[in-house]
Design brief:
This protein is an alpha/beta fold. The chain has three domains: 290 residues, Aminopeptidase, CATH 3.40.630.10; 128 residues, no CATH class; 45 residues, no CATH class. It is 35% helix and 24% strand. It contains 18 helices and 19 strands. The strands form five sheets. Strands 1-2-4-3-5-9-6-7 form an eight-stranded mixed sheet. It has a four-stranded antiparallel sheet with strand order 15-18-14-19, with no helix packed on it. Strand 11 and strand 12 form a beta hairpin. Helix 3 packs parallel to helix 5, helix 10 packs antiparallel against helix 12 and helix 15 crosses helix 18. The chain is globular, with a radius of gyration of 28 Å. The termini are far apart.
Length: 594
């Protein structure tokens, strides 16, 4: 066991040395801060942008652009490497170029991708052997997504992380975790990201992170968007071809990987672990809505910083190597998936991991024990790196639908809900507006039940387990209200945001909480007379009230509840209360639009 332990330590030390072997021959003017400090430090935001400006000034294949602004008040940068020096996204898409997008520093305390991307861009510019990987691929990268967090540097916010000496903070300038913001888009960062994503329409996306949780032998773990959720030919390709190919590429580079180890407070073995469910609040979950192969890298926090940066560099290089050989297949599968979404009728709103089946994962871990804590009265989990093992454990990578719906012909959105409309436009959703006032027979949802988190989560009290009842109603809509027909490739984004039961729906993110509060009421002593008249003239209401009294003992003893029941079932009760204000068109009827 001790021999294996020292072998692992020696391997890591050699890996750290290898990071700098090729870089020692670089001219000093092109060494990054990471290299100049022998892997001890990471670039600050200003140093990183200055380095990229210098690269772009020296090499015509590189261009640095800005998009919008961020909550910090600074613009979001995008660096592009285009081998033929064309930086126009529409031209590149027309030429059939593959777009590979990398995002860095969404959590600036996890800066591995920042340093790795700087070195990769430089090496692509300077090494002909690497440039051949980009004959048909354009690399675009956000160097610092969370600029506010990058500016908030310290040496203490990542208590368990092994380097660098100082780094940024997880929260952005408004203390938002930006990797929970892609659907709700509370931050200006998310709006700028959306502009980049919808402008460039990447085929493959990678978000660079650092993991916490369990301890194990791997430097690099990865999270691929859930293949069952991605679905279709693209989902099958991701699971059966792309991921195995990516693992093989990294094995060849002496960088074995494992899926993201999604356990906290316990060891991965012997029970195994499940594949991560990346709902659309996360980067890879958001990109999946638009048929993009989404990945998140997760280097291990306890491994030396140089080894982590090297693994991230090699992972990005592995992506480029795969795209160089399989780009045409990926483009064809993505195009077909987008086309199929136009005519797709059934959509899944939520998923559950399957516990009845699993794959076998050959896992390289460390033995662990529970020992008495020296700082508390309890037990603590302790891993033993001097006792490595390789074991087969179950990996629950398969998911099944838990909620599905049939898509409507269209959704109709009153113009008052301007944030929803704005996000639809920003996400390239095609919309039309009513050309005149109209009364249309539509299906309306009433929210019949939901639960709400008792603690704030990213500035929201999120709803979940939402249930709805559908009712046919004649709805008055005004000129200028919006119609979204579901015959477009953006259907997944449309449906997973507008259907209230979807896990990251706009309803669950509190966009419509105003409908959950009743606005009108009655004075009991006055309504008593009106209630008597209502019961006298409505036999159906009399019957419903009697049945309720006869079957509900608590109701029978509560006169106030009985009066409110009459009010609820009268024409005076507001129809807008608990009615979801986005309507479904189920029948193919003529709607007058501009």
């Amino acid at each position: 066991m001790m021999l294996k332990y020292f072998t692992n330590i020696l391997t890591l030390c050699l890996a750290c040395c290898c990071v700098f072997y090729g870089f020692a021959q670089q001219k000093s003017e092109w060494l990054t801060k990471f290299e100049q400090t022998q892997g001890q430090e990471t670039l600050t935001y200003s140093e990183g942008i200055a380095y990229l400006e210098k690269l772009a000034g020296a090499y015509p294949e590189i261009k640095l652009l800005t998009y919008g602004t961020t909550d910090s008040g600074l613009p979001l940068h995008l660096v592009i490497f285009s081998e033929d020096k064309n930086f126009e996204p529409e031209d590149l898409q027309a030429q059939g170029k593959l777009i590979f997008m990398v995002n860095n520093a969404i959590h600036p305390g996890e800066p591995d991708g920042v340093d790795a991307t700087m070195m990769l861009l430089r090496d692509l510019a300077q090494k002909k052997s690497l440039q051949k990987l980009l004959k048909n691929t354009v690399l675009i990268a956000i160097p610092f997504y969370n600029i506010g967090g990058a500016l908030n540097r310290s040496a203490y916010s990542r208590a368990n992380q092994n380097g660098p000496l100082s780094y940024g903070f997880r929260g952005n300038a408004r203390n938002l975790d930006l990797n929970r913001d892609f659907i709700k888009a509370d931050s200006k960062n998310a709006l700028a990201f959306t502009e980049i994503f919808q402008t460039w329409k990447p085929h493959v996306f990678l978000d660079n992170h650092v993991s916490n949780g369990a301890d194990y032998q791997y430097v690099m773990t990865y999270l691929a968007t859930q293949p069952d959720k991605l679905g279709g030919g693209l989902g099958n390709y991701l699971r059966n071809e792309f991921i195995p190919h990516l693992n093989q590429q990294m094995n060849d580079k002496k960088q074995p990987m494992t899926p993201y180890v999604n356990v906290f407070g316990r060891t991965p073995e012997p029970e195994g672990f499940a594949g991560f469910y990346d709902s659309p609040r996360y980067t890879s979950g958001y990109t999946t809505l638009f048929h993009t192969l989404g990945f998140i890298s997760e280097t291990h926090m306890l491994k030396p910083y140089p080894a982590r940066v090297q693994a991230t560099y090699q992972l990005m290089q592995s992506f480029l190597e795969i795209l160089a050989t399989e780009g045409e297949k990926i483009k064809a599968l993505r195009a077909k998936q987008a086309q199929d979404a136009i005519s797709q009728n059934e959509f899944v709103l939520d998923w559950q991991v399957r516990r009845d089946t699993s794959s076998v994962l050959l896992f390289r871990g460390y033995e662990a024990t529970r020992i008495p804590s020296k700082v508390s009265t309890g037990q603590r989990l302790k891993y033993h790196p001097d006792k490595p093992f390789t074991k087969e454990i179950p990996f629950y990578e398969f998911y099944k639908p838990s909620i599905s719906i049939q898509k409507p012909i269209a959704y109709l959105i009153p113009q008052a809900w301007h944030k929803v409309i704005d996000l639809m436009k920003r996400n390239d959703v095609e919309m039309k507006q009513l050309s005149q006032d109209q009364i249309i027979d539509l299906d309306a949802y009433y929210i019949t039940d939901f639960k709400t988190r008792t603690q704030p989560y990213e500035s929201h009290y999120v709803h979940y387990q939402t249930e709805v009842e559908k009712k046919k109603q004649s709805i008055f809509l005004r000129k200028g209200d919006y119609v979204i027909f579901t015959n477009q490739s953006s259907n997944r984004y449309i449906i997973e945001t507008l259907e209230p039961q979807a896990i990251d729906s706009f309803f669950n993110w509190n966009f419509f909480d105003s409908i959950l509060q009743q606005k009108e009421g009655y004075s009991s002593y006055v309504f008593e007379d009106l209630a008597e008249e209502l019961l006298k003239n409505d036999a159906t209401l009399r019957k419903k009230l009697k049945e309720k009294i006869d079957t509900d003992e608590a109701f029978a003893k509560n006169p106030d509840s009985q009066l409110y029941f009459i009010y609820q079932n009268s024409p005076y009760f507001e129809k807008e209360y608990m009615r979801y204000p986005i309507f479904r068109l189920e029948e193919n009827i003529n709607i007058l639009t501009e």
